[in-house]
């Protein structure tokens, strides 16, 4: 009886330990991984595509906010937030069931590890954000978004209008002081952001946006891809105040067209 009691105590201790340990996923091919909190049948593919051989942890501190049901699959508002973590060096955003999985990459730099933008969804899908911290670990959070579908294979509205050619890569935006310190930047860039999946329309999207202060110091970087919505808008929070009261927004699209503008208060 004493032996059985000791075995039972040991089993209970192991169960408690397992419950207290975050689900760590060994992404190497063929290894067993922890259960996906979103229960997506495509999580194994996501693991191999983005993190093969790297350490990955599901972390409840990482949030994805969006509508439970998207009214417009071409413009799904999404906010990804890993600001509860320290030392975030980059974020990647992807959707399990999109034909183009990866939506964007974000290097927060001098900004908080939080970004608002709009996304195209081809169908209902988990939308995930993975944050790589200074220790090299990827920490993942996400949420299911229900969508009527077709967001990635429909042509952009702008692609059929001559206006976008005159206003291509035009930037509008503003800076606001935040009550808790720092500044909020909101900007919109005129661009069709075509995925290349609509018949007869090649891929045409912004691929790099660099945000710098007046002295030329790079503060943050956003690298959007085709799944980001047409005329993309971004909201991010800077930890400090821009020197001189304005920010330089520069970059390019995949055809080499340049972005060059100033955003002020």
């Amino acid at each position: 009886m004493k032996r059985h009691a000791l075995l039972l105590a040991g089993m209970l201790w192991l169960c408690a330990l397992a419950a207290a340990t975050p689900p760590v996923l060994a992404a190497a091919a063929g290894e067993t991984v922890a259960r996906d909190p979103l229960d997506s049948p495509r999580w194994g593919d996501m693991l191999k595509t983005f993190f093969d051989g790297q350490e990955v942890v599901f972390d409840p501190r990482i949030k994805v906010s969006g509508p439970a049901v998207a009214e417009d699959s071409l413009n799904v508002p999404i906010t990804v937030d890993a600001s509860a973590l320290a030392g975030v060096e980059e974020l990647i955003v992807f959707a399990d069931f999109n034909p183009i999985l990866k939506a964007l990459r974000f290097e927060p730099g001098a900004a908080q590890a939080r970004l608002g933008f709009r996304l195209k969804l081809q169908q209902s899908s988990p939308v995930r954000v993975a944050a790589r911290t200074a220790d090299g670990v990827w920490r993942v959070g996400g949420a299911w978004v229900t969508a009527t579908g077709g967001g990635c294979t429909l042509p952009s509205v702008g692609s059929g209008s001559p206006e976008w050619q005159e206003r291509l890569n035009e930037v509008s935006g503003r800076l606001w002081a935040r009550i808790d310190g720092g500044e909020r930047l909101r900007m919109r860039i005129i661009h069709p952001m075509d995925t290349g999946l609509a018949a007869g329309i090649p891929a045409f999207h912004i691929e790099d946006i660099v945000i710098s202060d007046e002295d030329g110091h790079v503060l943050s970087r956003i690298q959007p891809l085709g799944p980001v919505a047409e005329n993309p808008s971004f909201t991010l929070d800077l930890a400090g105040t821009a020197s001189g009261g304005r920010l330089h927004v520069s970059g390019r699209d995949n055809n080499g067209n340049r972005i060059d503008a100033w955003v002020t208060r």
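Residues 1-24, 26-32 have pLDDT under 50 and may be disordered. The helical segments are 2-20, 43-51, 163-167.
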